[in-house]
Amino acid sequence: MQIFDYDNILLLPRKCVVESRAECDASVTLGGRSFRIPTVPANMKTVVDETICTWLAQNGYFYVMHRFDLDNVQFVKDMHAKGVFASISLGVKKPDYETVDRLVAEGLAPEYITIDIAHGHADTVKNMIACLKKKLPKAFVIAGNVGTPEAVIDLENWGADATKVGIGPGKVCITKLKTGFGTGGWQLSALKWCGRVATKPIIADGGIRDHGDIAKSIRFGASMVMIGSLFAGHEESPGRTVEVDGALFKEYYGSASDFNKGEYKHVEGKRILEPIKGKLADTLVEMEQDIQSSISYAGGRTLMDIRKVNYVTLGGDNAGEHLLM
Ligand SMILES: NC(=O)C1=CN([C@@H]2O[C@H](COP(=O)(O)OP(=O)(O)OC[C@H]3O[C@@H](n4cnc5c(N)ncnc54)[C@H](OP(=O)(O)O)[C@@H]3O)[C@@H](O)[C@H]2O)C=CC1
Ligand SMILES: Nc1nc2c(ncn2[C@@H]2O[C@H](COP(=O)(O)O)[C@@H](O)[C@H]2O)c(=O)[nH]1
């Protein structure tokens, strides 16, 4: 298997078929809804809050609310009261099963549920998927995180409607250092490997450092791309604002960090400061324009045309051109 990551792949252009990048459609469909772009802010406490989730849903973007220190039932009520879809995260512990029972008892059906644990190739996830499919059958269930084709096949067979791929490539991840495991450093080829067996959408999660990495993720099999650090440092971001030598930063910490957990136990995440980079809405517009440009370089008109391009690997033993046959 060929190993590569975002910074040692470049996609090869094909003849342009549009007169303007505005003709390129960056939208994607997931769970029966169409979203303006194939990116979703990470379900982390320093990345999203209820205000941001509401704004995203009202403006045509996908969102996944985090699952820490909040009442998921109240969140679903709030989102439905505002007339937008509800997209929540769950773990696999007793309180998560109690949340499902409370949702059912109150007649609340979130449109999207993301089962979000560090090691998602697990019987605990199988059991939670079974529970959701029985008790909340209309919910679109995303399950993860995983990093191998075997795991994608299992999650799909267990009933997941989409899988989330990425173990440790995130900017605040220390999984590979603490455990020796993961897709950190080769996330893009792990995605390619998983994409070959997937029959349902894949959400690529972690490791995106530049907007061009979104097109690369789509090329190698993602339908949606989850992003933490690039979204964390905005004026509206929920992380604490910190001033260092007159410059403003937002704190961004891992969900498995002691900052999120409140204790130092099984820590696999750290805290960093992200320079504040303006308004989230402006970044999303720029992202859409960049994806439209990617589609035009791919010689296409729609997002999935990016899947048709060849690519080159830069440097290392595997360097070369890779043609689609
Ligand atoms: N994408 C990534 O690379 C990673 C993401 N995270 C994020 O951090 C958050 C917290 O994750 P997590 O600790 O799983 O959530 P939880 O603390 O809710 O744990 C979920 C369950 O899985 C068990 N568990 C966790 N890790 C493992 C493991 N390696 N092997 C076996 N069982 C395990 C836990 O038990 P117990 O604690 O008793 O072991 C618990 O029962 C999530 O949002 C997750 O997405 C965390 C690490 C990596
Ligand atoms: N190993 C860990 N991974 C984590 C933790 N908290 C979140 N995450 C993952 O990172 C991505 C975001 O990555 P980024 O490169 O875009 O910043 C997020 O969606 C999670 O999957 C953690 O504590 N440890």
UniProtKB/TrEMBL annotation:
Residue limits of the IMP dehydrogenase/GMP reductase domain? 5-309
Listed EC numbers: 1.7.1.7
- Annotated protein name in UniProt: GMP reductase
Q: What SUPFAM superfamilies would the database entry show?
A: Inosine monophosphate dehydrogenase (IMPDH) (SSF51412)
Keywords from the named record: NADP, Oxidoreductase
Instruction: Give the family from UniProt.
Output: Belongs to the IMPDH/GMPR family. GuaC type 2 subfamily.
Which reaction does this chain catalyze? IMP + NH4(+) + NADP(+) = GMP + NADPH + 2 H(+)
Q: Which PANTHER family match?
A: GMP REDUCTASE
* GO molecular function list: GMP reductase activity
The scientific name of the source species is: Variovorax soli
Entry's CDD domains? Answer: IMPDH
